[in-house]
Amino acid sequence: MTRAEYPWLLPSDLAGPAGPGRRRRRTVRDWLVDTVAFAGAAFIGLLAAEASRRADNAPAAVLADQLLGATACCALWFRRRWPVAVALAVCAVDAVAPAASGAVLVALFGVAVRVPFRRLSLVGGAALVSGVVQAFVRPDPEMSTLAAITLGVVLLLLVTGWGMLVRSRRQLVAALRERAVRAEAEAELRAERAQRAAREAIAREMHDVLAHRLTLLSVHAGALEFRPGAPPAEVARAAGVVRDSAHEALQDLREIIGVLRAPGDPGDGDRPQPTLATLTALISESRAAGMRVALDDELTGPADAVPAATGRAVYRVAQEGLTNARKHAPGTETAVTLRGRAGEGVTVEVRNSPPTRPVPRVPGSGQGLIGLAERAALAGGRLSHGADPDGGFTVRAWLPWPA
């Protein structure tokens, strides 16, 4: 239950901070509780006043007892704002007016709920003293002094224990709520870090590819510069290569805009980049590691026709899906499916059958999928993942493949 869902059911003590210079407003639940407490204190006060009337006290004493009891009950409406002061005032009245006994019990309960034990012990001692003084000043004609004192002590202890139990429960709920908020914030931070790491990895890959294209462009442009007398056909062919390389470099540059490269990384621009053509090698490595992997390639057209950025994304999706299957469902069958054609996009799906035995949760699970979703979004595609009805797990991504 949260305050946003049911604000009128929560006590004001659990409703969160009230803001600087402002008191917490009573909720509907607070009004109901205060009304019931007032009614209960008034009922006990009426019983005590009736006992005082039957004890042949003077009418003036009975009237004063009733007025003091009513005043003590009315003071209970301020116990949320001044719990200790109201409780001490009611205890002072209870020493000479038995009609205030119910108000003492309610006020002591409110103090036990709201203040630490040191201040509670002060109020409890005052309530105990007032009960003993009342037993001698206004004795009950139907009960001995010792019995009256014993009954009063038992009632005070019961009310105090109940209030301390409620206070402990509220503190536990507040601690659990704070822990849940902190855990949610940490999860969001981990997700942001995973997204940032995925962006940085994509930026590094795209930077390497862009550097390669620019290098080719520079080489062919240099050949044209140093061979001005080359045959027209050779010049035209070199110019076409320069044009195509410049166009591809421009496409890569558009993709890398907005993605920052992680500072301080070592230069690794010469490393080979995975493509769709290297997917079969990944499947072979997984099989060599003991996995049962089936590849269903339904692509229309050669793998080399798929754009390099899309091929890398497909490779990474398949790689992460196989890694998750190996960690969370070892020994099961895994199927990798490729579908698509130019103009319609590429769909890659990795599905593993349900695990045959319980597998413990691996720390950090889910971060790779967050990175994959970020990679697919940056490539202009989308990614979905989730458990199947039979207990398996499927990772599916669609990526654009221009015509």
Extended strand count: 5
Identify the strand order in the major beta sheet. Answer: 1-2-3-5-4
The outline comes out as rod-shaped
Order of helices and strands: HHHHHHHHEHEEHEE
Structural class: alpha+beta
Helix content: 55-70%
Which sheet architecture does the biggest sheet show?
A: 5 strands, mixed
Proportion of β residues?
5-15%
What does the average pLDDT come to?
Answer: 77
Low-confidence stretches: 1-10, 15-22, 261-271
N-to-C span: 52 Å
Radius of gyration: 39 Å
Count of helical stretches: 10
Outline the secondary-structure elements.
Layout: H1 28-54, H2 59-75, H3 83-94, H4 101-114, H5 117-137, H6 145-226, H7 232-256, H8 279-288, E1 292-300, H9 308-328, E2 333-341, E3 345-352, H10 367-378, E4 382-387, E5 393-399
Parallel strand pairs: 1-2
Antiparallel strand pairs: 2-3, 3-5, 4-5
Task: Name a few traits of the molecule.
HATPase_C_sf, HATPase_dom, DUF7134, 403 residues, 5 strands, 10 helices, five-stranded mixed β-sheet, alpha+beta, transmembrane, Heat Shock Protein 90, membrane
Verbal overview:
This protein is of the alpha+beta class and 403 residues long. Among the domains are: 12-142, no CATH class; 276-399, Heat Shock Protein 90 (2-Layer Sandwich), CATH 3.30.565.10. It contains ten helices and five strands; from the N terminus they run ααααααααβαββαββ. It is rod-shaped and about 130 Å long. This is histidine kinase.
Structure described in brief:
Its EC number is 2.7.13.3. The protein is an alpha+beta fold and 403 residues long. It has helices at residues 28-54, 59-75, 83-94, 101-114, 117-137, 145-226, 232-256, 279-288, 308-328, 367-378, and strands spanning 292-300, 333-341, 345-352, 382-387, 393-399.
